[in-house]
Design a protein that fits this description.
elongated, about 120 residues, mainly alpha, 7 helices, 434 Repressor (Amino-terminal Domain)
Length: about 120
């Protein structure tokens, strides 16, 4: 197995996706995905851009070095877990999370009627 193929497979598994699903995001057939992971073929830039949009760390796939992620900075363990989990979601799920958290943050900014404003 080619090293790029091995890292591509590792990223797909990190994102908890089947070859067929990951291939679909990349705009290729499942057998092309299999060939990439075996090292028989190399993915092109369009494929890599498409899987990056779904959460794959393309820098890691190509170089073996992880992107400098926010989770390496000053996030709490809970924040890091939330971000890592979010990155495994598909686009529709991510949109739902953004909608829910937007509503929650707007609700928390509204003073409660029980608060003392005097």
């Amino acid at each position: 197995m080619d090293i790029i193929g091995a890292r591509l497979k590792e990223e797909r598994r990190r994102l908890k996706m089947s070859q067929a699903v990951f291939a679909g995001f990349g705009g290729v057939a499942r057998n092309a995905q299999s060939n990439y992971e075996k090292g028989s073929r190399l993915p092109d830039a369009g494929y890599l851009a498409a899987v990056a949009a779904e959460g794959a760390d393309v820098q890691y796939i190509l170089t073996g070095k992880r992107m400098n992620t926010v989770s390496e900075q000053v996030l709490s363990q809970d924040e890091s877990l939330l971000l890592d989990t979010y990155r495994t979601l598909n686009g529709q799920q991510k949109d739902a999370v953004v909608r829910v958290t937007t509503v929650m943050s707007e609700t928390s900014a509204v003073p409660s009627s029980d608060s003392d404003t005097d």
